[in-house]
Amino acid sequence: MKKLFFLFFSQSFLLPLGGVGGGSSFAQTGTEWDNPSISNVNRETAHNVSIPMGAVTSQAETDLSTSPYYQSLDGTWKFYWVKSPTQVQASMCAKDYDDASWSDIDVPSSWQIYGLHNNKPWDKPLYCNVAYPFSFNESTYSVMADRPSWFTYNSNMPNPVGTYRRTFTIPADWAGRDVYVRFDGVGHGYYLWVNGHRIGYSEDSYLPSEFKITDYLEEGENTLALQVYRFTSGSFLECQDYWRLTGIQRHCFLWSAPKTQIRDYFFTTTLNSTYTSAVANVAVSLTGLDALAGEGTVEVNLNREGSTIASTSSATSSFSDGQATLKMNVTSPLLWSAETPNLYDLVLVLKDGSGKAVDVRSCKVGFRDVKIRNDGALLINGKRMVFHGVNRHDFSPVNGRAITDEEIEEDIKTMKRLNVNAVRTSHYPNSPIFYDLCDKYGLYVLAEANVECHAHQKLSSEERFRYMMVERSTNQIRWHRNHPSIFMWSMGNESGGGENFQYVQTAIKALDKTRLTHYEGGSQYADVSSTMYWDYNGIKNKGETQKDRPHIQCENSHSMGNSMGNVREMFDLYEKYPCLTGEFIWDFKDQGLLTKTSNGTEYWAYGGDFGDNPNDGNFCINGLVRPDWSKSTSRSNSRLSIRLRANSASRTRWRSCPVPLTT
Amino acid sequence: MAFLPSTAYDVNYKLVDEEETVLSNGTINTEVAAGDSAVVTLDVSALSSLDAAKEAFIYFCATQKENTAWADAGYVVAEEKLQVHAAQKPMYDLSAKDSYDDLEVVDGGALATITGSRFKAVFSKTQGTLMQFTYDDVVLVNKSMRLNLFRLPTDNDGRRTETWDNLSLHKLTVKGTGSTVTLSEDKKSVTVSLNSTYSGQSGAVCNVQLDFLVVADGTMMVNAFIQPAVTGTILPKMGFRLEMPAEMEQFTWFGRGPWDSYVDRKEACLPAIYQSTVTDQREDYIKPQEHGTKQEVRWMSLRNTAGLGLLFVAPDQMAASAVHFRPEDNYTDRNNRAKHTYQFKTCTPTVVSLDCATRGLGNASCGPDVMDKYELKAANTHFRFFILPLTAESNAAQAARIAMPICQSVNCERQTNGRIKMTTTTPRGKIYYSIDGGDYQLYSSPVLWNDACTVKAYCTADGLLSSPVMTFNFPLYINKSGWKLVSVDSYQGGNEAKLAFDNNLNTFWHTAWGANEPSCPHTLIVDMVKIYKVTHFTYNARMDGNENGMVKEFEVYLSLDGENWGSAVAKGEFKKTTSEQEVALTRTTAGRYLKFVAKSEINGKAWSSAAEIGIKATADITVIDSPVSDGSPVATAYYNVAGQKIANSQSVNSQSSTLPLGGVGGGLPRGLYIHNGKKILKTK
Which of A44, A238, A555, A583 is catalytic? Predict the structure, then answer.
């Protein structure tokens, strides 16, 4: 039903298509960016991230770039910065606009960071915690209200807009296929042009956004342009406590699919009570079935280390409205856990009537379940969980929010070395590769949606913003729901306790019943209860009195400076009481931006160091590790410790239990 | 672990002494299933051959068997080290000094200099401490050993820095208040006793008594007594700090390490002997702050590359650090301090801190503050340690295996029932005390003495030198347990008014809050039951880190009948601090009823709160009612010729029909007394 709702909007805001050079495609930039009722125009519905593979293989491929149907758009683009939407010109997005005098820019990058390193006269990084760095109209929710003069984004620079341009050509063997462009993350909102045609608009800086561009392509060189707004109506929900950065900050690429494609699929497992056998369920969604030659089949293979463990298939004729769920029985599945991250290769093949493979999709999957026990304990695969967790921001001291894949992997390796077993994606989804790595290395992921209106928490009671809060969760689920590492969905952070979250909970459950839900700002809406920074007595009381559902300290042990006292006492509580599930440290890495003093001395910067206002000083420096992963003595020596209680000189009780973050 | 059994790792153990000599070792092969525990028996019979003066530990280590994507085989996943043998250290041998040359003492006006065959120790009387120490013509201490109560505040310390700034903890000034220098008869040792007061912008913060026993071989035994002017204030640390020249860079310590550790964050720092340099202690927090402190230090040495230096030995344990920075060089006040590492000022000398107590870290930057058991609250503290010279031939670990052959100093405290309790930690120690300059007598049980008094006390024990003499001043005993609440205009359930005079700083009175809350002024009236000649009023604000209700403007009134109050005997404004605040009355005034009026709140809010209110007084004067006419005995008590009650009735052995002239209850001034209903005249 939600799908129809959005289609309605797309149709009614279908953009006029002129020919090349037609006047209407150079019309004024739309007003969607400043309209809280519109979060996207013509954007594809979210779906599993995988794209067609070149051939049927036994092994699933998480690296999409290995596919012949993938073409990266990363690299050097042209960039033009203006300080206000009044200076934006749609003509800059025309196909043959001369951008030779424009600045270069790296894609992906945070433009404030690129500007800092390359001495550009653009806006600089700004760090603030609870505040919006902009002001807004309280009745229309326009982000272009008068600004205090001491704000960095004041009337002199109310809302920068960055225009990006590049060209591309389509490979010959993509002929006859549908072509999509996907951006893994652009903030805070952008319009897309292909060859001078304005294709659509998208908000939500931390989920992929995808547009179908087949009909706008030309032979030879094509032009891609984006206009990215610093502040949009999406900014209301992006008030996270971090460096405020924007731009095309994640990978972007073109990909192509056959006219009939496996558009989406959802893998779940139902395990028996002894965890010795399972049913693997694969819900498959096909589109463009009319274009398929003959009677097609969808084949599903579950492989491991080259062997097929289970497989099944179904005729496309038995699909109803393009949907069907296929099932396979698996005996003695190797379970996935953070300590034993056993993965299987799921390969789906759509074949046409002649048995030819038309579309091949794959991903890594795992067998595990998440349950609540009758004493309130949180169980994964039947075992009670105590999380040694961390909160992790996407942050690189040199790249800002445009953290590279290698840096993400180093983050994860560092966590594993520190005996961290769980991570909360505070407070927005990460790049797809992050979840692949958590699947592979073994980390339990509390996947949090990109929802934080900390500066104006009553938005959770504003019906106008309800759809935005809902779709940021449902879209996250659609993109990332096949990852075994994700065990719980979090609806957002510090956004008030309004009833919008009841709708989010309902929408999440409609899409995914295999995981639990979480929202600290309103635990009444979620499956588990949650607190931040509660002290010893508060947690002890919670442990003694709560018997019906798990309790999570989603943030604790604030690791700011020389810190983290009495972690041992807290974990003694977490280990003792069934409903307690451990904690997630705030946070993993000091968010210090590498910069230089005027005489060239390097240092890590925090809020205010760029003259940014409003700012919250060094309140972003809360990490277990320094920006370069070196350890502060507020140590990240979380070790799975062998706890010992000496009974006498010759006998010791030896118990394996986690003692994280012993510093 | 929930899913992997113990056999996923190599688990090894070794039994080691404090110098890491392996006494035995082995592998633990027992398979412990995931989430389970097991009892493992280990052979520690090798302990029987261990030198009793050395500690021993069992070290456990679990390592990866195979390479993983994030770490190679052999990576330590978990480790722990438990003490299984405590050291029994022999007494420092006092007879060894006899083989050294006699000591020379030059006792001047400002300085006292003690010279031995290889060393020179200079004491400053104006600073009340050791100022310089030279050995083999090399200066080892070049800046005086001063009381240090400050650390460069951590981000978590932010709730306390206003109090610390008000006390000027980072820039206390010192004034010597008295000293004695005594050369022993055999001229092989000198006792230097120095008293001093450390003050901040608001007045005295601490009195310190330092007693040095300087021995002919260059050993110095230090007994310190730190007496805060106000007890209960939360402090960052308590100890002493001196400086050594930059060449004293080779840093070895036996304690937790190798990183810094704090009382509530030390588990990952295993106890061992560590060798490092002072420079390596630097930790670059993005905003510079306290670092480098080690917990549970048994001893630490600072030496130059030739092996010359000093050894600091704690008879039991202390916290300690050696760094190249001074906190006060990086801190003007809580709003003006080094913000980034490039602004962090280091210094060339080695800054040595020896701490008897340190505050935990907590998580107050966002979350709960230090847990109560890890808090450092100012209290009378005894602290002792050795300072020994080291040369190239010295083995520091061996030299540190000594206990101090001096009795522990006596601590005197007035209990809540008014009696003065005297304690020492020396086993079988005998305490001798004197009150108001009287003869010393042997202590057996808490002494009844309600009046203001000065107590001196020391401890003796067989085989040990006597402890230094400690001096304690006590005000008149005010028994709050009998105080009664007369009235209060408002209170919140759980924060009743009586909590403001229950002798407990952890409970507090708070006026009602919420809808319709009454605003200031708030009034609390107490019946003190006895009449006191009041000299001061004291106020303790709530200490839970919350400012709500802390009183700003106030007035105090006294009354003899609870109805006639007169004008305020004290008024003014309290500061925003959790230290006790004492206000002198404009004039010493007799009163039985105390009225405290809180006129405004520290942040302008409607409430008032108080952890404790109290008085200081010179005498407890309860006037008797009209004389008894039928001859029946009045309650047993002492009343003087003016009809004023001098001492509590309980203070007298009620079976005796004569006045005690001395001993328990003390010598009373001459006068007319009633005892057991009988009139007695004491003439001298």
Answer: A555
Which residue from A263, A264, A69 is spatially nearest to A176, judged by alpha carbons?
A: A69
Task: From B59, B85, B111, give the residue that closes a domain.
Answer: B85
In total, the C-beta contacts within 8 angstroms joining chain A to chain B are 226
Query: How many CB atoms within 10 Å of residue A552?
Result: 32
HSE, CB side, 13 Å, CA atoms: give it for residue A367: 24
- Do both A113 and A253 map to the same domain? yes
Pairwise CA distance, residues B567 & B152, whole Å = 45
Per-residue pLDDT tens over the stretch A497-543: 999 999 999 999 999 999 999 999 999 999 999 999 999 999 999 99
The residue segments making up the domain with residue A335 are 263-365
Q: In a 3-state reduction of DSSP, which class is residue B312?
A: strand
Do A242 and A152 reside in the same domain of the chain?
yes
CA B498 to chain centre: 29
Domain encompassing residue B677? 638-682
Coil/strand/helix, residue A413: helix
Which of A210, A407, A452, A494 is the catalytic position? A494
Q: Please, are residues A418 and A638 in contact by the beta-carbon 8 Å criterion? A: yes
- Cβ pair B556, B569 in contact under 8 A: yes
B166 sits in which H/E element: helix B161-166
pLDDT at A608 over 90: yes
Q: Residue type at B212?
A: F
Q: Domain boundary at A334, A365, A396, which?
A: A365
What φ, ψ does residue B554 adopt, rounded to 5°? Answer: -145, 165
Res B651: pLDDT:
42
d(CA B513, CA B19): 60
Going by C-alpha positions, the residue among B172, B171, B169, B215 that lies closest to residue B192 is: B215
Same domain? For A303 and A404 the reply is no
A415, containing H or E segment: helix A405-417
pTM of the model: 0.87
Nearest Cα to Cα of residue B378 among B536, B169, B531, B522? B169
Three-class HEC string of B639-671: ECCCCEEEECHHHCCCCCCCCCCCCCCCCCCCE
Q: Is there a contact between A654 and B1 if contact means CB atoms under 8 Å apart? A: no
Do A56 and A201 share a domain, yes or no?
Answer: yes
Interface touch A563/B363, C-beta < 8 Å: yes
Note whether B502 contacts A: Cβ–Cβ < 8 A: no
* A352-385 core/surface letters (b: 16 or more CB in 10 A; e: else): beeeeebbbbbbbbbbbbbebeeebbbebbebbb
Given A238, A257, A276, the domain boundary residue is A257
Q: Give me the sheet containing B76-85, strands edge to edge.
A: B22-27, B9-17, B56-64, B76-85
Here the ipTM equals: 0.88
Q: pLDDT tens-digit profile of A356-391?
A: 999 999 999 999 999 999 999 999 999 999 999 999
Identity of residue B614: G
Res B639: pLDDT: 59
CB of B28 within 8 Å of a chain A CB? The answer is: yes
Q: How close B657 comes to chain A (CA, Å)?
A: 56
Instruction: List, as one string, the DSSP characters of B503-548.
Output: S-TT--EE---STTPPPSPEEEEEEEEEEEEEEEEEEE---SS--T
Mutate to test the interface with A, among B260, B264, B265, B373 (most CBs of A within 10 A): B265
Q: How many angstroms separate the CA atoms of B114 and A457, rounded?
A: 71
CB contact under 8 A, B68 and A416: yes
H or E stretch at A485: none
Whether residue A101 is found in the same domain as residue A164:
yes
Same domain, B65 and B139: no
3-state SS class at A157: coil
Residues of A in contact with B342 (CB under 8 A): 597, 601, 603
